[in-house]
Design brief:
Blueprint lengths: L5 H6 L1 H12 L5 H7 L16 E4 L3 E5 H13 L9 E4 L10 H11 L1 H14 L2 E3 L6 H8 L6 E4 L13 E4 L2 H8 L4 E4 L2 E8 L8 H12 L7 E6 L8 H9 L8 E3 L4 H9 L3 H9 L8 H5 L7 E6 L6 E3 L7 E3 H11 L5 E7 L6 H16 L7 E5 L3 H9 L2 H8 L2 E2 L22 E5 L15 E5 L2 H10 L11 E2 L5 E2 L21 E2 L33 E9 L6 H4 L12 H4 L8 E6 L5 E3 L1 E3 L6 E4 H10 L4 E5 L11 H8 L2 E6 L4 H9 L3 E5 L13 E5 L10 E6 L5 E7 L4 H9 L2 H5 L1
Parallel strand pairs: 2-3, 2-5, 3-4, 5-6, 8-9, 8-11, 9-10, 14-15, 14-17, 15-16, 17-18, 22-27, 27-28, 28-29
Antiparallel strand pairs: 1-7, 4-21, 12-13, 19-20, 22-30, 23-24, 25-26, 29-32, 30-31, 31-32
Helix pairs in contact: 4-6, 4-8, 9-10, 11-12, 15-17, 15-18
Length: about 750
């Protein structure tokens, strides 16, 4: 906990909570307790959920290697000698899953030497902790080392809320938000609504923490948590392990939630002690009342939460979600019927467990329990089977305790302690591009093409134990609750429900060899960026607003259907360019479905459109945008619901800005992406009437007026001049406050910092 005095933080909670109760005139939810104890202004007046903006002082910042590059490049522009809060960099995204852990890390170190050298030297110079490649996935490492109940952190990865499993308010943000905190400025966020999730009963049999969040995705959908904190309470909470809670809060990102939270209880104290933080556990137990909702909230939840949803763990079934969206959910009992109806490929081509969402000691243990049953019957995996441990600590401990050996004997390939296939870092060798197939993972996202780059892959998600069972069967139709497997001798057997310890009886096998502390004197450390590098590029400030209304902008793209940050700025092979804005911009919108276009094979055109200045068709969106930019023509993107859902990657905002975008107009927009667009000087706008989306034509000229009197709460007007001489006009809304309007005028938030 370098730089943090948790004892002092806890000692100040009583007075801060008392002030919040007096100001709000009511008892406090846990979310309110944490927010009001991290206010920038200790005399903050009353705020209104969903409308006010809060200025907060997070306790720490965490960044993964793909997003840290751009964040650090922005931080360097601020010309600060050292970060203002404890900050860490974690190398987990740039390791491609190829042949197995040892070889893959070795290759990654060679291929990414320039980037890793940049990140490690910058970390040493500016006072950040650095976790080397192979040491673990950012969220697992944070949970093991830095998270603490009642704390607040931001991270440049959308699954930062993983730390909510340990009672920390942990929020995924774009790099520019992180830079604000790193330079000592407050972090601004919309004061969120709070949804209460009442858990009752106890998980049993094949159900797990994973199924809690998959069930909630079925209820709320991928946009149902936008600008909300998801707060769990009830007797069912006390039956969950800390790492099961982390799985649940991790995938709260798929709801679009600001973050998710669990109150402090025994399993958190047990986890803190198991991870060498008994002092923090003792403090949390002493201040337990401050790390839980007020009693009045629990007595009458509907009076304090904006909405309350009840989930009965006794009745919860294992769930499977997918393909292509994590809210396409159903219990396992209904999956077989849907497979037959929708004609999903039944053969399971690959099963994958691990990732930041499900790679704890308990997760691997439950998967190993399933594997050992099959091994006793002479069984092995009938499909490809991959395991990605969450950290070096989990890897070493599960290896020591025989779990990895059982999975290995079942046929698993153990990959590096890294994100790997979960984010598309998977060099898949068994199928040709375009081959329809089904895979199942214990990951968090399953957007089209995300895991293996193949748009024809149908990706499903379930718990690690369910994925392991399906790997043994070799088919997605297998239901371990009702179906049997064939033993080596031809007999049939049923798998018993998995059981595993939440924490290792012998303690964790601790190894911090992957950590590099910052230099005592950062001034002695040099950070280099070669002028001819194709991996890193120093940033140039974006130009400020010219003071005029927008006239005759072009329609670059009208995205149809789901358009996530994976579609706007794909990862996979593009990850290596995350520190080079010019090169990464060649992937802009290449996954977006063109509402106007049809490909040569008759399907919807993806990533290509029409250059309305030249008449050329079939050009990629980056090619068209570069041509428009070279001719001084600004452009606009139109989208549908929950535009920008998914990852926190700010490249999905920086690339459009770099290539000449003026605005993005959608029916609705994901929180992180909307903020990222604002930070880069763009206009994220929403149709006041969603039906106006249908009025947009490919060859329109777009005007946006009202900018010369731009003000919070005041709508702007969009005019579409059609090629036939007719026109349409409609209003668009925005969520800019006055400070954010200044970002737009300055050209970016960063421009105001310099």
């Amino acid at each position: 906990m370098e730089g943090l005095d948790i004892k002092s933080i806890y000692a100040g909670l009583d007075a801060k909570h008392a002030y919040a109760r007096k100001t709000l005139g009511k008892a406090l939810t846990l979310a309110e307790k944490i927010i009001w104890s991290h206010l920038h202004d200790a005399a903050q007046p009353k705020m209104e959920r969903g409308k006010s903006f809060a200025l907060l002082r997070p306790d720490r910042v965490a960044m993964q290697d793909a997003t840290a590059q751009m964040a650090i490049l922005q931080f360097m522009q601020a010309q600060k000698a050292k970060v203002a809060v404890p900050t860490t960099v974690h190398c987990d995204h740039l390791i491609i899953a190829r042949d197995g852990a040892t070889r893959d890390v070795e290759i990654a170190n060679n291929e990414n030497k320039e980037v890793f050298d940049f990140l490690s030297s910058a970390a040493r110079k500016y006072g950040m902790g650095f976790w080397k490649p192979g040491s673990g996935i950012i969220h697992q490492v944070v949970l093991e080392n830095y998270a603490f109940p009642g704390g607040m952190m931001i991270g440049t990865d959308s699954h930062t809320p993983n730390a909510g499993g340990l009672g920390m308010m942990a929020v995924g943000v774009g790099g520019s938000d992180a830079v604000d905190v790193m330079v000592g400025m407050p972090w601004e966020v919309l004061y969120p609504k709070v949804t209460g999730i009442h858990l009752k009963g106890t998980l049993n049999g094949w159900t797990s923490g994973k199924d809690v969040i998959l069930k909630l995705l079925e209820i709320l959908t991928v946009k149902g948590g936008t600008n909300k904190i998801i707060e769990y309470f009830g007797k069912g909470v006390e039956t969950l392990s800390c790492t099961a809670q982390a799985t649940i809060t991790n995938m709260g990102a798929e709801l679009g939630a600001t973050c998710s939270l669990f109150p402090f209880h025994k399993s958190m104290g047990d986890y803190l002690r198991a991870t060498r933080r008994a002092d923090v556990a003792d403090l949390a137990e002493k201040y337990k009342a401050f790390l839980n909702p007020d009693p009045e909230v629990l007595s009458n939840p509907s009076a304090y939460y904006d909405e309350v949803i009840e989930i009965d763990l006794d009745k919860l079934e294992p769930y499977v979600v997918g393909p292509h969206s994590p809210d396409k959910a159903r219990p396992i009992s209904k999956f077989k019927e849907e497979i037959e109806k929708e004609k999903y490929p039944e053969l399971l081509s690959a099963a994958l467990i691990g990732s930041c969402t499900n790679s704890s000691y308990e997760d691997v243990g439950r998967a190993a329990f399933v594997a050992r049953q099959a091994l006793a019957q002479g069984g092995k995996a009938a499909s490809q089977f991959f395991v990605s441990p969450g950290s070096e600590q989990v890897f070493d401990t599960t290896k020591r305790d025989g779990y990895l050996d059982s999975l290995d004997k079942m046929g698993a390939v153990v990959m590096a302690n890294a994100c790997g296939p979960c984010i598309g870092q998977w060099q898949r060798k068994d199928l040709a591009e375009g081959t329809a197939n089904s895979i199942i993972t214990s990951f968090n996202r399953n957007f089209r093409g995300r895991n293996d780059g193949n748009n024809a892959t149908l990706s499903f998600i379930g718990s690690p134990e369910l994925v392991t069972a399906m790997a043994l069967a070799g088919t997605i139709k297998f239901n371990p609750l009702t179906d049997s497997l064939k033993a080596a001798d031809g007999s049939s057997y049923k798998l018993q429900a998995p059981v595993a310890d939440a924490l290792p009886a012998k303690g964790f096998a601790f190894n911090d060899g992957g950590f590099i502390a910052p230099a005592k004197d950062g001034a002695t450390v040099e950070v280099k960026v070669a002028a001819d590098s194709n991996r890193l590029q120093l940033l140039e400030p974006f130009k400020p607003w010219d003071g005029k209304e927008i006239e005759d902008a072009l329609v670059l793209a009208k995205a149809q259907g789901k358009c996530t940050t994976d579609h706007i700025s794909p990862a996979g092979k593009w990850l290596k360019f995350r520190g080079h804005l010019d090169k990464i911009s060649d992937n802009m919108l290449v996954g977006a479905t063109n509402a106007f276009g049809v490909a040569a094979n008759g399907t919807a055109a993806i990533g290509t459109g029409k250059n309305v200045l030249t008449g050329e068709t079939g050009k990629t969106y980056p090619q068209i945008a570069r041509d428009y930019k070279s001719k001084g023509k600004g452009w606009v993107v139109f989208g549908e619901e929950n535009y920008g859902e998914g990852s926190s990657r700010e490249h999905a905002a920086m690339s459009p800005r770099f290539l000449g975008a003026r605005a993005v107009i959608a029916k609705s927009m994901a929180r992180i992406h909307e903020t990222n667009l604002k930070k880069q000087g763009l206009l994220p706008l929403k149709f006041a009437n969603a039906a106006d989306y249908d009025k947009v034509r490919e060859d329109d000229r777009v005007g946006i007026t009202g900018l010369t009197s731009f003000a919070p709460g005041k709508n702007l007007k969009v005019t579409l001049k059609h090629a036939d001489g007719s026109s349409d006009a409609f209003e668009v809304t925005h969520t800019f406050n006055q400070e954010q309007i200044e970002w737009f005028k300055a050209g970016s938030a960063l421009n105001l910092m310099n």
